[in-house]
Each structure stands twice: as C-alpha cells, then as structure tokens.
Design brief:
The protein starts with a helix and ends with a helix. Helix content is 45%, strand content 24%. The chain is of the alpha/beta class. The strands form 2 sheets. Strands 1, 2, 3, 4, 5, 6 and 9 form a 7-stranded mixed beta sheet that branches. Strands 7-8 form a two-stranded antiparallel sheet. The longest helix is centred in the last third of the chain and has 20 residues, at 163-182.
C-alpha cells in the first residue's frame, strides 16, 4: 500500500516537472473556457477577442444551465486589457439577449472609456442592454442576419408601486438613451421612437431591427463580418 502511494506520488511529481501532453493542451485554452476570450497574435498586431453572450448576469446569480456573461469577470479583464502593453486592440463578439441593466451599463462604460482601439461585431443578436454594449466600442459592425431589440426598461419580481419607483425607471431609461445616442449616430428622437413602437412586438412595445436597418438608423456603423471587423481594428492599431 505504501509502495503504491510512492509510485503514484512519483508519477505526479514527474508530470508537474515535465508537463503532460494533456496539460500542455489545456492550459493555453483556459481563458477561452473560463471567460470566452482569446488573444490573437499576428504580424499586424496583438488583438484580444472577448465574447459577450447569453444573459448579462448582475447581482443575482442566474439558474444553473443558463448561458451568461458575468460582469465581475469582464470588468477586471477590461481594466487589465487597457493596462496591458502587449495588447494592441480588443474585438468584442456579441450574441446576447440582454440582462441586468446596471451590470450591462457598467461594462459598456468601461468599453467606451478605453483608449485602445476597440471594435464590436453583433452576431445573432444584440438585444436590450446588449445595445449599449454593441455601440460602446470605437467602431461597430453587425452581421446582415443579426437583430437588435430596442424596448423600454423592464423589471421582474416584486415592485413597489410608488411614484419613486416610476421616477427611478424614468431616470434609468434616460441614462441608457443618453449613452446610446452619445456612442452612435442615432438621434434621441429616433431611438425613443423605436423603443416605444407598438408595431413589431405582440405582447410588448419596442422594435426589432436587423443588420441594414441598424446601420440605416445610425445605431451601428457598418454591416459586415469577422474579416471586416478585424480589418477595421488593424487599421486603428
């Protein structure tokens, strides 16, 4: 029994010293597994690619099995990328249904405040609070088939029916509108019109817009794909 333990320990020590084939393969992939991010190094520069997918998780933990982007992971990562001298630019790939408003705004504010070149590409969807995230980078792209849902602030769970609650909702919505208008080419009037439309959604107010429409309204800069987004980023570097 003791001899067996020594053999096992010797094997573990050997693996730690030399590195097994499995460890050598999984360690470089760990940031991609944990955070959905990876660093791309080419002769034109070093780009960090970060995905924003599923729901934006805020102060409340989402149910097990829900695909989520956690703000407590993204915020320090963005701060690190801005300070990292080896990173030349950041590419954001979005396919999000929205989520926690304040968490989403926090991430969007950090992105918009970065001095390094940043580019976003909306793939699939950039809905709800995903819209501020999509417009926050310096340059913005959307795939032709991608969609964006613009709607007023919603709240789930218990709500105190008092004037202060409605006032809070109104001010929070104003913050979102101001941020989107400041970081895109859409007018406040047009964005509010899309937000309050009763034509597109059967059980709610708001609008669903697609690739070319988002560009036409000034919400996104260009329709494009991955190569377009990367090229724009390399140009800015």
């Amino acid at each position: 029994m003791i001899l067996g333990s020594k053999v096992i320990k010797a094997r573990k020590d050997e693996e730690k010293g030399n590195g097994t084939e499995t460890e050598q393969q999984t360690v470089p992939m760990q940031p991609l597994v944990d955070l959905g991010s990876t660093t791309l190094k080419t002769s034109r520069g070093t780009i960090h690619c970060l995905t924003i997918v599923g729901q934006i998780e805020g102060h409340m933990i989402l149910p097990q099995g829900a695909k989520a982007t956690r703000y407590e992971h993204v915020l320090p990562l963005l701060a690190g990328l801005e300070a990292d001298e080896t990173i030349d630019g950041v590419l954001f790939l979005l396919n999000t249904m929205g989520g926690d408003v304040e968490a989403g705004l926090a991430i969007a504010e950090l992105i918009s405040g970065m001095k390094k070149p940043t580019v976003s590409l909306v793939l699939g969807g950039g809905h709800s609070i995903g819209i501020p995230l999509a417009v926050a980078p310096r340059r913005t792209f959307i795939a032709p088939s991608a969609s964006m849902t613009v709607h007023p602030i919603r709240m789930n769970g218990t709500m105190i029916a008092a004037p202060q609650t409605y006032h809070y909702f109104s001010r929070l919505q104003e913050r979102i509108v101001r941020f989107v208008v400041k970081n895109s080419n859409i007018s406040e009037e047009k964005f509010t019109e899309l937000m309050m439309s009763a034509k597109d959604m059967a059980a709610d107010v708001g609008s669903v817009i697609y690739g070319e429409e988002a560009v036409e309204y000034g919400l996104i800069d260009r329709v494009g794909g991955l190569s377009d987004a990367l090229e724009a980023l390399y140009i800015d570097i």
